[in-house]
Amino acid sequence: MQNRAFILKLFSAFALCFAWEIAGRVPVSYAFPTFLESMSALMQMTADGRLFEAYAETLRPLIIGIAISAVVGVIVGLWVGLSQFFDWLFSPIFIVMQAAPLAALIPLLVLAYGIGLTSKVIVVCIMAMPVIVLNTSGAVKNTPESLKEMGLSFLASRLSVISRIIIPAASPVIFAGLRLGISAGFIGAILAELKITPTGVGDIITYSRSIADYPSMYAAIFSIIVLSVLFLNLLDKVETLLFKGNERGYVSD
Amino acid sequence: MHLFGYRLPGMSSLLLWGALWEFIGQAKVTFFIPPLSKVLSTLYEVLGTVAFQNALKETAYAFCSGVFYAVVIGIIVGILMGKNRLIDELLLPWVNVFLSAPLTALVPVLMVLFGFGMKSIIITTSLFAVWIIILNTRAGVRQINRSLVEMATSFGATPLKAFTKIYFWAALPEILGGVRIGIIRAVKGVIIGQLLISIVGFGALFELYSANFLMSHFWAVLIVLFALAFSISEFFTLPPSILHNSSVT
Amino acid sequence: MSQIKNVDEDLQNLEKPIAVSVDNISKNYGNVEALKGMSLKFPKGELTSLLGPSGCGKTTLLKIIAGLLEPSAGTVMVNNKRVTGPGTDRAFVFQDFALMPWASVLKNVSFGLEMRGVEKTEREGIAQNYIKEVGLQGFENSFPHELSGGMRQRVGLARALAVDADVLLMDEPFSAVDEQTRRKFQEDLLQLVESKNKTFIFVTHSIEEAVYVSDQIAILLPRPSRVSEIIRPSNFRAKGVDAIRRDSEYLDIVDDIWTSLRSYVE
Asked: What's the structural domain count of chain C?
């Protein structure tokens, strides 16, 4: 059974690449290269180091931003979930932030902080934090009452209840929030590069487009998507490692 | 949250934050944050201008078309995936990939293929929304209670009748949930599309205001945008409570 | 007829020492009076049931005794010490099991010991013993979602037994499992009460269950919550677990209780 699923995944990946190849040959548009063309451009970029340099640039604000968002986001989320006052004070802000298209703030950030690392990190943070905070605080607030009572009845201290019961109980939803936050952060990073200043992978995309080197452009985009998939899978593995009991058959977020 | 024994309404801390904004603005802490009162009065002016109204019209058009396509395609694909195992196994990995991938990266592709105009923006909007609609529709179809299916068959319902009278309604809450989230994502999509493509709608307005350092105007339009986005998403939280049946996760 | 006795005052005369004493307990939630002026005594080493229809406050009372809820008025004494919160002398078994889904059976059972500061090898050893005692040997490393409802409640029971408290508080512990498992649990409970020198306070809304397992039944009625009678079934228990359910005294008591409770069912 496992095999069938895997084989089908492989097959559909192959089918997609095949379709891409055909579409490129037709061609769907003069600006649509074939799969093979794009892959060879990708190889080339990897070989001459351009790709790595570009990612070093792109990943910097991304990693910094996500690290800050994850740590600060979870802590703020815990705080908001545990304290009625902070819930009242901060939840509305994050709720508005989550619903609103924060990308619209980017031009403002550029005005205020220029086109350097700071504004890019800020972009990643504002995209990633709201969902992390809200997921965390929601999970904390929804901890089953009887589990908390159970902890108290066995004489757990308040701190123990938080660290041994509330946090583990909330962990699946917190991780779901981290997943969503990281995706949003990724979007922020790319957006920042495409919009604020041409550096890193965003630069490869923009530059390639301007000189009509479409295979390179598609190659770069392809690599971004692959990277985000890999990264999220890694996150899943981390969750499984830290919280073995979380594989309880959850409905996807 | 209680103060002096009175229960404070949900979003009331926003008033506090608003007051803070006013204070910071009046204190001229930074050029980039004008007082809230100034922003609100500029907002009033801006709402009447032709530029704004055009931006609104264009954005609304792109948004509605984008959502329309996303909903139609999303529901159809979702139903197909929910009912047919082969299609499901083929498509599901991709839907999951695109659900969390940075779709923003695809916008340049769209710009290159479809030009710098409305078309690209509509497609961007649809792209942002469609994946979650597919997933939720699929989930809705898959979780249709087994005994409902058996009941329909036992009473001799034809496939069409069974679908329209039972399956559709049984899957509806889940589908609507997906559409709701999809709409919220579509709002982000239409804005991101405009920011990157820049020729139309609010994207153009933002460029204009920031180039001329018209801070109050900038914030005013931003507030309008945020308020619109927020009320759209809140609005779509209402109907499901009417249609939602007793099954709660 | 059978030996049902109203023993409110008789209990004072009994030689039995009292483990838990509830004195004039009231509990208000805003305007709602969940409990009003409730007084009750629980003899040591016995199983007392709190039986009554929904809304009569039996779970509220149990949680007050456990120290999980604070009463609006009145006191609870356990072994002559006043109750001010949860303590090492009491252990609670929850209706919905309250197991930590991310932890193995072994970790769940040793949780109470862990909170009391018992060191790891020691507490796991103790936990192992009790896991064996409740019949779950071999499942130490399983997770709750891999177990049936009955097995999960055994874990909850093992956890409560492991801390070796004097008083065991059980909040409708068998209501979330299927009927057959429930019957088995009731039979096992009888044995448990025999073998351990603990006081059991047992909340249930099943009349048969209460009469089957209890040394003493306190019948609670709602609005206002009060103790309406205390019944001490005489020793038909000695006749053996299987024979009890057909014993005529047992059936009579069940019938009488039902008759008096019937009018309170909504």
From this structure: 2
Residue A161 burial (CB count, 10 A)? 20
CATH class of the domain whose range is A34-245: mainly alpha
Which residues are paired to C93 by β-bridges? Answer: C170
pTM of the predicted protein model: 0.76
Give one DSSP letter per residue of B25-52, joined into a string. Answer: HHTT--TT---HHHHHHHHHHHHHSHHH
Mean pLDDT of the residues in chain B: 81
Q: With bands split at pLDDT 50, 70 and 90, how would you rate the model's confidence at B2? A: low
Nearest C-alpha neighbor of B173 from the set B232, B230, B234, B239: B239
Residues C66 and C188 in one domain: yes
| Percent of chain B predicted with pLDDT > 90 | 14
Nearest to C76 by CA among C56, C61, C93: C61
> Domain B53-243's class?
mainly alpha
CA distance A179 to chain B (A): 8
Q: Last residue of some domain: C141, C164, C187?
A: C164
Cβ distance of A224 and B105 shorter than 8 Å: yes
Domain boundaries along the sequence of chain B: 53-243
> Are A154 and C104 a contacting pair at CB < 8 A?
no
Closest chain A residue to B30, measured at CA: A112
The tens place of each residue's pLDDT in chain C, 266 residues long, gives 333 444 444 554 456 788 999 998 988 888 888 888 889 999 999 999 999 887 788 899 999 999 888 899 999 999 988 988 888 899 999 988 888 888 899 999 999 888 888 899 999 999 999 999 999 999 999 999 899 989 999 999 999 999 999 999 999 999 888 888 899 999 899 889 888 889 999 999 899 999 999 999 999 888 777 888 888 887 776 777 777 888 888 888 888 888 888 877 65
Asked if C105 and C1 sit in the same domain, the reply is: no
The per-residue pLDDT for C4 is 40
**pLDDT value at residue C171:** 92
Instruction: With beta carbons less than 8 A apart as the criterion, state whether B139 and B77 touch.
Output: no
Considering the domain architecture, whether residues C174 and C218 belong to the same structural domain is answered as: yes
Evaluate whether C244 touches C236 at the Cβ level (below 8 Å): yes
Tell whether omega for the bond before C71 is within 30 degrees of 0, i.e. cis.
no
Put simply, the answer to whether A87 touches B1 (Cβ < 8 Å) is yes
- Residue A153: which of C92, C101, C116 has the nearest Cβ? C92
**Nearest CB partner across the interface for A194, out of B12, B14, B108:** B108
CB-based contact C26:C36 (threshold 8 Å): yes
Structure tokens that stand for A129 in this block:
């934090």
Note whether A2 contacts C: Cβ–Cβ < 8 A. no
Say if residues C64 and C27 touch (Cβ distance below 8 Å): yes
The β-bridge relationship of strands C47-51 and C216-221 is: parallel
One domain for residues C68 and C101: no
C235 and C263 assigned to the same domain: yes
Residues C64 and C196 in one domain: yes
Instruction: Output the pLDDT for position C155.
Output: 94
Establish if A165 touches chain C: CB-CB under 8 angstroms.
Answer: yes
- Residues of B in Cβ contact (< 8 Å) with A92: 10-14, 17
Chain C residue with minimal CA distance to A161?
A: C115
Domain housing C134: 96-164
